[in-house]
Amino acid sequence: LVGTVPEEPRCTVERADASLTYSLFLQRFAFSRPVILGGVTDNSAFRTLCTREKLLAAFGPFPVRLSTANTYSYRKVDVPFQEYVEHLLKPQDPTRLGSDTLYFFGDNNFTEWGPLFQHYVPPPFRIPGTSPAYSFGIAGSGSGVPFHWHGPGFSEVIFGRKRWFLYPPDRTPHFHPNETTLAWLQHTYPTLPPAQRPLECTLRPGEVLYFPDRWWHATLNLDTSVFISTFLG
């Protein structure tokens, strides 16, 4: 069925809790491998502001910039936020190409969305020499961004579940840049020998994933999801 997305049976990304110190984060993860952080922040107040009703009331008439769900995401389309939520926020069609799939992630007008972001509590860790920038998004079940890479960052799920696939910089994954993550999961993933499979896990509300610089990653929203990333540039 369209929008029916499986959750992986295991998590191969290391986890850490609030006992992780900044020095251990730098030593063990910051420059070497991803980690899922649990209990390091409390964004319950931010979550109450991110319900469908409250977001529509606050931002309904404002335009939002949608990006194509392919590796390079070059095409952008501006629509009112209310139109996106009520008409475009749907489960991913497995037959559609990434260039034909639009959703809201990454491009935020900080003049309009800044008051909301002021209520977000970011992860407590930083990479020396970087400064944080937020990226807020809302996406339907089965949507996601295919494999790509950029600088380091954190990603937190506010509502829903988000499945991640990650490869280190020296292991370029096999994928077509215009194939959606859902299509890759259905067609390519089952053919991978165990040794060639990515690190993977599903994030739930309140969990934060850290990914190091230049790590390949693809995302797949298992539900209609609200999420926010903190990119370290």
TrEMBL record:
InterPro entries: Cupin_8, JmjC_dom, JMJD6_ArgDemeth/LysHydrox. PROSITE patterns: JMJC. Gene3D superfamilies: Cupin. One of its GO terms (molecular function) is cis-regulatory region sequence-specific DNA binding. Residues 99-233 form the JmjC domain. Pfam families: Cupin_8. It comes from the Eukaryota. One of its GO terms (cellular component) is nucleus. PANTHER family: ARGININE DEMETHYLASE AND LYSYL-HYDROXYLASE JMJD, JMJC DOMAIN-CONTAINING PROTEIN 8. This is JMJD8 protein. It comes from Nesospiza acunhae. The gene is Jmjd8.
